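Annotated sample (chain length 320).
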Amino acid sequence: MSYEARETLYRVIGAIYRYVEGFTVLDYPRSSSRRSIDIVAKFKSGRLALIKVADDIENLSKNDVEDLKKVASIIGSGALIVSDRAGGSELASGVVYEKHGVKVINVKSLERSLSGRERIYVYQSGDTLKARVRGSLMREIRVRRGLSLGAVASHVKVSRRTIYEYERGSIEPGVDKAERLAELFGEEIFMPVDFLEPLKPESPSGRPLDCDVDAEALIAEKLRSSGYRVAHVKRTAADLVGLGPGSGMIIVVRHGRESLDTMVNKAVNSIKMSRLSNTENYVVVDSSESRRALEREGVESVEIREFLRIAEEKKRDLRL
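Output written by the structure step:
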């Protein structure tokens, strides 16, 4: 991890510390440039968030962000990138940006929002900064004050039709128009951006997963047949994540090329993630020798055939 990224990580920890029930810092993979999740945080509000810390969001690959999204959508958490820069330029405070479909804010905005000192109303949509209007409230205030659509349109410098669409919620104003609306109606007509909003699970595609080893493919197919949504990830402390009726699952699968130290590190980090996310955790190995080696390091594991038996039992339970 670069000096800048490490400093940002410490500042993020400082920003969230008073507002969480618990958090953990992940260090798998060892290289932060290949890691999609740096912090797992359970907030006092009950929200869970997976956080990626970056010194500059332009240094994040699409694969980094995709794995973050996959895990968050499966375990029902928010996904957030915290960074102070984009392409060397400072990110503005009071704005929620976007990187490959994941919300991005700077450290100052994170701390001020969590503390209640600031609400964030501006968000990035494509190349435009916008605000989301509470249309019914805007119309209520406008009517109460005796303002016509034309009078509001004249002040905002848009058409009457545009004001009407703002009130219907069918279009959203850019920052310059939002500022003019705020002059008339105040900030209360805007909806704060929920940067900790849980990601929704994607609809199952039915396509085979792009797994690294046969064991992963076998486990994934078994879970799918048991009613689980399953995703394969490469850049965090898991190989597979699954969502079944009422429960989530984080699975580490032993790869033949992995050293014992690497496997132990991945397993320990996955366990930390499961504890905070209240998900089941399984470390799956291909032999009794591997299982005994991990046990000597304090890591419990199951062999593939045992895990498949567990998955089959879950499938039978669903049928009852």
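Annotation: The chain is about 40% helix and 20% strand.
Annotation: The chain has three domains: 3-118, 129-189, 214-319.
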